[in-house]
Amino acid sequence: MEMIQQHIEALIFASEQSITTSEIIACLSNVSEQEVNSDLVDETIESISKKYEGEEHFFELVALSGGYQFMTKKRFAPTVSSLIQHRNKKKLSAAAMETLAIIAYKQPITKSEIEQIRGVNCDYSVQKLLEKELITIAGKSDAPGRPLLYTTSKLFMDYFSLNSLNDLPQLKDIQATNGSEIGEQVEN
Asked: Known Pfam families for this protein (predicted)?
């Protein structure tokens, strides 16, 4: 196939989520008479990665959740973040973020288990997270009534730049705050 590098770049660029080597091979095999194997794809991806390392590019090739995705380099994060904040008027509610965090750390988990932890009904939050494709239904529990099990999705992994769930911050590393603002004197 002529210019295989450009074809692979086009696939990575066009993919909304990270794209795996096997997906790249499947796509290229559909349009090429030449045999495309994982060694060729891996070599080409390495070449693409080196190509965009330079200072003249604002993005780079990043390995995410078992695949590859073009992402803006960290030094441009404030600029891009400004655009996203400007355009993103509908954010997740605090309840939805709490529910998402519980699912991320306890998955697979049922809705009733989430409600036990939160202490309130979470129907709306779970529905919103499903609509935004941040969580998925992973099957049914063996518990009575066979409730649905929820896990985080590939989009969740991509959105939070995680390769695996092991990349989540450890709960012991997250420090609780007492509600005071930085620099504020607290009287006892």
From this structure: SMC_ScpB
pTM recorded for the entire structure: 0.51
DSSP state of 65: T
Check whether domain 94-171 has CATH 1.10.10.10, yes or no: yes
Dist. CA 107–CA 159, nearest whole Å:
18
Name the fold adopted by 4-77.
Answer: Arc Repressor Mutant, subunit A (1.10.10)
Tally of helices (H runs) and strands (E runs) in the chain: 8, 5
| Fold match between domain 4-77 and domain 94-171 | yes
Q: What is the pLDDT of residues 95-153, one digit of tens each?
A: 999 999 999 999 999 999 999 999 999 999 999 999 888 999 999 999 999 999 999 99
List C-alpha distances in Å: 122 to 98, 116, 117, 136, 139: 10, 10, 10, 15, 19
Q: Spell out the domain ranges in the chain.
A: 4-77, 94-171
Give CA–CA dist 151/56, Å, rounded: 39
CA distance linking residue 48 with residue 42, whole number of Å: 10
Who's near 65: CB < 8 A, 6+ residues apart?
17, 18, 154, 157, 158, 162, 163, 164
Q: To which H or E segment does residue 68 belong?
A: strand 67-72
- 53 CB contacts (<8 Å, ≥6 apart)? 60
